[in-house]
Amino acid sequence: MRINKYLADKKISTRRGADELIKNKKVFINGKLAELGSQVNETDKIEVRGVKKVEYKYFAYNKPIGIETGSPQEDLFPLGRLDKNSHGLLILTNDGRITDQLLNPKYFHEKEYVVKTSNKLRSNFKQKMEAGVDIEGYQTKPCKVKIINENTFRVILTEGKKHQIRRMCSALFQEISDLKRERIMNIKLGNLKPNATREIKGEELAIFLKSVLS
Fold first, then answer.
1. For residue 22, what are the domain limits?
2. 208 in Cβ contact with 201 (< 8 Å)
3. Which residues contact 106 (CB under 8 A, 6 or more apart)?
4. 132: phi > 0 → left, psi -120 to 50 → alpha, else beta; which?
5. Is position 104 within any domain?
6. Residue 83 catalytic?
7. Are the beta carbons of 180 and 82 closer than 8 angstroms?
8. Alpha helix (H) ranges present in 81-149?
9. In angstroms, rounded to a whole number, what is the distance separating the alpha carbons of residues 190 and 178?
10. 3-state helix, strand, coil in the chain (%, to 5)
């Protein structure tokens, strides 16, 4: 196994970050400096020296309508985006290890939204949304839809194409008046007020990290 993959698998760093550690002469294999592309196995002694351990932080943030996706704390970055006219849950962190696992489309992680439309939902809307919708040549993956009333529905997606829900609704002749994200995997927005944050910790954090790092 290549040393950068080993360090990534052990959740010590991303592969790119591991390459930087190796370039900076921080990684040792059996007491000798590692080189880019070095091969290792489980019996080798791997050390990362002179690197201060990062204290990872995780927060739920309720992004208000009318602002661009960002973070109210300089040392944290958002995982994913919500467009300016959408609101609801973002996860803020300084943990670069989980970025790819959460955002890469090859991984399946549930995200739940409540959506209001300015025109009445068509009778076949649920069926068509759940089956997948052609948005400019891309067929979306099947999703789960629950109709709340004639102008409101709840949808659970496992992918996150840019403006996906808005584009899906537009393709089905529905105009969105409000879009709110309420859940990412096991992290729920709950009663968090707009522009407020709360720390993700304890069992909630343990379940989340197990899902994205396993």
1. 3-48
2. no
3. none
4. left
5. no
6. yes
7. no
8. 99-103, 125-131
9. 18
10. 25, 30, 45
Q: Active-site residue among 83, 100, 134, 178?
A: 83
Cα torsion 128, 87, 109, 199 to 10°: value is: -160
Predicted confidence (pLDDT) per residue in 95-137, tens digit: 887 887 777 767 788 999 999 999 999 999 999 999 999 999 9
Residues contacting residue 131 through CB under 8 Å, at least 6 positions apart = 142
For residue 35, what pLDDT band results from cuts at 50, 70 and 90? very high
Cβ atoms within 10 Å, residue 174: 22
Place of tokens 């351990």: 53
Q: Which CATH number fits the domain that encloses residue 14?
A: 3.10.290.10
What pLDDT, in 10s, does the model give residues 166-202? 999 999 999 999 999 999 999 999 999 999 999 999 9
Q: Is residue 197 part of a domain?
A: yes
Of 207, 205, 94, 117, the residue nearest 166 (C-alpha): 117
The pTM for the full model equals 0.78
Length of the chain: 214
The CATH number of residue 133's host domain is: 3.30.70.1560
